Amino acid sequence: MKQALPKKFNIFEVEEKWQKKWEEMGVYHFDWKDKKRPTFSVDTPPPYPSGEFHMGLVLNWTYFDIVARYKRMRGYNVYFPQGWDCHGLPTEVEVEKRHKIKKTDLPPDQFRKLCEELVGKNIGAMKRAITNLGCSIDWTTEYKTMDPDYWRRTQLSFILLHKKGFIYRGTHPVNWCPRCETAIADAEVEYETRTAQLHYINFKLENDDFLTVATTRPELIPACVTVAVNPHDERYKQYVGKKVHVPTTNRTVEVITDDLVDQEFGTGVVMICTYGDKADVKSVAKHKLSVIACIDEKGRMTQNAGKYAGMTTEEAKKAMIEDLKKEGLLGKIEPINQEVSVCWRCHTPIEILEKEQWFMKTRILSSEVEKNALEIMWYPDYMKYRLIDWAKSLEWDWVISRQRVFATPIPIWYCKKCNEIILAEPNWLPIDPRIENPRIDKCPNCGSKEFKPERDVLDTWFDSSITCAVHAGWPDREDWKRLFPADVHPSGVDIIRTWAYYLMVRHLALFDEKPYKSCLINGMVLGTDGRSMHKSFGNYVASQEVFSKYGADATRQWVAGGGATGSDIPFRWPDVEYGWRFLIKLWNAARFVCNQLKDYEPKESVEFVLQPLDKWILSKAERLTKKVTDALETCQFNIAMEGIRNFTWHVFCDCYIEAVKDRLYKPDFYGKEKRKAVQYMLYTVLYRILQLLAPITPHVTEEIYQIMYAEDKSHKSIHLSPWPTLDEKRIDEEAEKRGDLIMAVITGVRREKAEKRMPLNTQIKKLTIYAGGKDTAEIITEGREDISGTCKVANIEVLPKKGEGREIKPYSDIHFFAEY
Ligand SMILES: [Zn+2]
Ligand SMILES: [Zn+2]
Q1: Mean pLDDT for each consecutive 10-residue tract of the chain (820 residues)?
Q2: Cα–Cα distance, 239 to 217 (Å, whole number)
Q3: Ligand 1: distance of its center to the CA of 294 in Å?
Q4: DSSP secondary structure string, 8-38?
Q5: pTM for the predicted model, two decimal places
Q6: Protein residues within 5 Å, CB atom, of ion ligand 2
Q7: How much distance in Å is there from the Cα of 660 to the middle of ligand 1?
């Protein structure tokens, strides 16, 4: 071995160097022409370009980069693409904030430009972070969902689903964010517990008697369409079918029964409004009630609210309470804790409005979703129920239209005269109907030549929920099914109901096939205070800060070792620092090995004589290989990480290297073959460590590999070297038992020296070992050269009987006595 490892190594320089070189060398490119190797495709989630590659994404990306690297070494032709999910509300909200405008203040194309600018800048920063993390992405695959070429795919999928009958336009209650002024899907609604006021309000009956209704939203009284009681509630039986007067209006409504009414809540009498919540939606449908919309898209009261028209809901609530007081209809008010539905983006409470929207039929697929979820491998397994339970819980179809600007246009026009729907043809795509007319002469229904565009746009999930097919090359590559379904879909535990779910329904509907074969789930990153990491909690750590302190290989060790896959992982600086110290330990061990191998020719076939400790380390390295391979096969990264670190640090460095130094230094005394045996072991075991570590710490392993092994092994990169095949024959339980015993003797003697505050190289005139039996005596005798050499013993005597002296732990029958 001609080259030496430098004494000091700068992890930051090493990482930057390899990130550049890997790209230049094309190490991670998918080989489309290779038909021999099996393929392995990663359905990389295109992240939303917020500009910040936060620690949660570091966790996510490290997980599947480990998988991709492992599979590459297992001989797979790995397809690891990367895209960006550009559209959507958060970007628009950010543009509105930065430029202090509302989306309606600018023409759509100008507003869109501002969004594109922001996204472009953000992508640059995030791409740097992914590169800095050392992800083995094939950057020739990069795409952006805001590019017209991606619109083409999204719009084509819309057209195909429309033709298959999965898409319809309908008037239906939808979740509506009055701040963002758009419909949002169930998956975008979050729940917060807030304290509200429960108002007791008297609704007069015709005979001056009254019923008391309890509600947290008195401002919705103008939208009250009926008053309901539970059919089994004896208190109110006599009132069913009677008319009550709706306060502040000149309407009366009928008292009906509905078994959804909870007798225990408030007075047991509820008003049903259009709409206060999803229960109202159910009741209205069930009893075929008419709808009075009294809140508009901006969250203001409509003309239907009478004197409250034009007020915000909050203003209307105050005014209503005052009016009810004046009329003597307001009873007590009490605080109540309530689950409030809020917009996931801006946390404004959502309203339920009845709107004409585009929907995708998703509920009809729920049993298919369940069937496929059960067929897929989940890491960890129990996560499949998150998907199944979510699919089963859905009450509404997926509303896919949005009243926003920065999104994929819906490829639809309407005939101005007869309202016929004109669907774009696939060869017109990509197309923006707001700018271009349909490429037909006249309406196929009425012959009119005038059309109006669909101004609504598509939900951003409609872009990103076809990635499995798009990554595979659909619709352009004939052979796209080669990479479909994707081998692994990685997802955060919090977005199973979106990523995993939408991918599933879209691909099932489009291609009658599940989109992915396995699902790898990561938990959340917690702050040091145990709460989820969030800027508003003051426990936020930026990934760039972690990289700049300890580099990527240390950070990746925190990810891999942080906890079981799927569980929440706390961010702890000491964990990252421990990873960094491990890298230094590994580097120093490699440097030692490198120095000892100056006269070693890996290819020359030399006779060497294996000693018990050589067989011991060989067997342990093989056992480790099995453990790490099994762990990576099942995505148990923490088990792999701990196994490799323990072995490297304690077994290889602290034990083996220390115990064989004397043999290494004194070939004249022990014989050249015994030194060769150690050299062979150091060369072989270090290479094994590097290979097993490569998926987790790709940079440092590559650096050591290139200096020490590349010439001999002749793989372009350690990441293209074949994963070690397990040699079960090398796992030798007997050799491990023997080696353990010899190591225990060495450790025991060294410990005594340390306790007596003697230097470790203090000479021992005579070491008497009471082995406690014939078998153990024989083993110790076999290892006496390494024991004497390591412990500096002039004269060693091993007796097969029990005796006095210091105990060798954990062997209670073995004792020793050292004379200095
Ligand atoms: Zn909102
Ligand atoms: Zn027409």
Answers
A1: 83 97 97 96 95 95 98 98 92 91 87 94 96 97 96 98 96 91 88 93 89 94 95 93 92 93 92 92 90 93 94 94 93 92 90 93 96 97 96 92 93 97 97 94 96 95 97 96 97 92 98 98 91 86 95 98 95 96 97 94 77 95 97 98 97 95 93 91 97 98 97 95 91 95 96 94 95 95 94 95 93 94
A2: 23
A3: 19
A4: S--HHHHHHHHHHHHHHHTTT---TT--SSP
A5: 0.90
A6: 415, 417-418, 420, 443, 445-446, 448
A7: 67
